[in-house]
Design goal:
alpha+beta; 4-stranded antiparallel beta sheet; 19% helix; globular
Length: 108
């Protein structure tokens, strides 16, 4: 089973001061700029709109301990490849695939 996780973010809520400049220079001398994001997925609980998760800007350990909470930037939906969004069996299988991915040991 293959699936996409579709999402979009509300860029008006992004705190652009939190972006990170890369260390490596490109051929033209510029450096990349990155926006650290956190994606939360709960395949057991789907919202009334079909969302299974959300996206927020990432926070540091110190910010989390200080209970600094950043706004939600967007939501996540599963899109099953080759199947209908209405097919509950395919959606259930896609969620199992996502669950299996997150159960694997990640070395970082």
């Amino acid at each position: 089973m293959k699936a996409f996780l579709n999402f979009s973010i509300d860029v008006t809520k992004v705190d652009w001061k939190r972006r990170i400049t890369g260390k490596k220079e490109r051929e033209d001398g510029s450096k990349g700029e990155y926006l650290p994001l956190t994606i939360f997925i709960d395949t057991e609980k789907e919202s009334e709109y079909g969302d299974i998760g959300f996206i927020k800007q990432s926070t540091s350990q110190e910010e989390r301990e200080a209970k600094i909470d950043l706004p939600y930037l967007g939501n996540i939906k599963i899109k099953v490849l080759g199947g209908s969004r209405q097919n509950v069996t395919e959606i259930s299988e896609a969620k199992k695939t996502v669950d299996a991915f997150f159960e694997d040991d990640v070395p970082f």
